[in-house]
Write a structure and sequence with these properties.
Alpha-Beta Plaits
Length: 161
C-alpha cells in the first residue's frame, strides 16, 4: 500500500495536472463537493493509467481497518481483537503450536519493543526432537504475550522527507 501511495505521489508531482498542484490530498482539498472530488480522482486515474474501484474506497473515515491493522490520523495500531486472541492462548504443547504463536506475534513484531530478544529463548524449543518447555521458555512466552499488549501507535511515513 505504501508503495502504491508513494508511486501515486511521484506520478502526480512529476506531471502536475490543472486541478492539483502537487499531491492528491491538495486536489481533494481544492474540490468543494464530492462531485468535484470524484471528477478529480477520475482525472488523475485516467491521466496516470490507474485503476480505482470506488466501491472499495472509503471517504472521510477517521480510521480504516487494513490487514490486521487500524490506520488512523494518529498512525498505525494493532487490531485489538488479534491481541485478545494472543492473550487467551494457552502454553504450547508442541513445536507446531509454538510456531503458530510465533507467527501470530511475529506479524505484529514492529509494535513490540525488543521482540527478537524476548522471543530468542523460544527458538531452540522449535526443534522437532527436542521440544522441552523450560522455565526460560515459559518466561519468554509470557513476556512476549505481555509485550504484545502494549499498544504503541506507529507514525505514518512522510514521503516528502
Amino acid at each position: 500500500m505504501s508503495t502504491f501511495i508513494s508511486g501515486l505521489r511521484e506520478e502526480i508531482q512529476a506531471n502536475v495536472c490543472a486541478l492539483c498542484s502537487t499531491t492528491l490530498e491538495e486536489a481533494f482539498e481544492k474540490a468543494e463537493r464530492m462531485e468535484q472530488k470524484h471528477k478529480a480522482l477520475k482525472m488523475v486515474e485516467k491521466q496516470h493509467e490507474l485503476k480505482v474501484k470506488l466501491s472499495k474506497c472509503l471517504w472521510g473515515e477517521q480510521q480504516v481497518y487494513y490487514l490486521g491493522h487500524i490506520i488512523s490520523t494518529s498512525g498505525i495500531a494493532t487490531d485489538l481483537g488479534k491481541i485478545a486472541c494472543m492473550m487467551e492462548l494457552s502454553t504450547p504443547k508442541n513445536p507446531k503450536e509454538l510456531r503458530e504463536f510465533l507467527g501470530l506475534t511475529g506479524y505484529y513484531k514492529q509494535f513490540a519493543t525488543d521482540y527478537e530478544k524476548i522471543a530468542a529463548p523460544l527458538t531452540p524449543v522449535l526443534r522437532k526432537d527436542k521440544f522441552i518447555w523450560s522455565e526460560k521458555a515459559i518466561i519468554a512466552f509470557e513476556a512476549l504475550k505481555t509485550a504484545m499488549t502494549v499498544d504503541p501507535v506507529l507514525a505514518l511515513l512522510d514521503f516528502t522527507k
